[in-house]
Amino acid sequence: MLRSTRLSSRNKITVVYIYNRTMSLQPKVSIIMGSTSDLPIMQKAIDLLEQMEVPYEVHALSAHRTPEQVEVFAKQAEGRGIKVIIAAAGMAAHLCGVIAAFTTLPVIGVPIKSTLEGMDALLSIVQMPPGVPVATVGINASLNAALLAVQMLSLADGNLAGRYAAYKENLKEKIVKANKELQALEGLKYKTN
Predict the structure, then answer these.
(1) What is the pLDDT of residues 174-193, one digit of tens each?
(2) Residue 145 CA to chain centroid, in angstroms?
(3) Which residue, of 6, 66, 117, 145, is most buried by count of CB atoms within 10 Å of its CB?
């Protein structure tokens, strides 16, 4: 679980440090957001990676305000052992594409709803030019981004694949239970099942 978060400025990069039991492990996933205001949306991704026991790191980098730092991050990510990058951005949403331009790692884009109901960010991320792909999930869908990262990592990690399979089974059980509860509804005049 998230124990504490603090913001600091170092070398003009704002970094969100997550202190948890995985700090001593090598991160496999980088969660990058254009601003710390995106943290509440990205929390679902953080929570899922915690649940799946996947080491990760979290940074705030801006394609427009800290472009040099974004380039350095993207170029060095693979060498630091990162396997998948989840990048979240709103409005023009260039962060995901800029990261993808400087790395061969898979980049998953999370469009953030800020203006135009998030459609501007969605279209900015999903409409990448040929040769610079960014896998794109729904608007504010950081949970799905983390699940996609887990699926990618599961290809080379049988233990993680098992945890992911158990997660999917739990989703199925929740729906089966919910359906049974709906079937048990009584006292409704026109309910036919």
Answers:
(1) 999 999 999 999 999 999 99
(2) 4
(3) 145
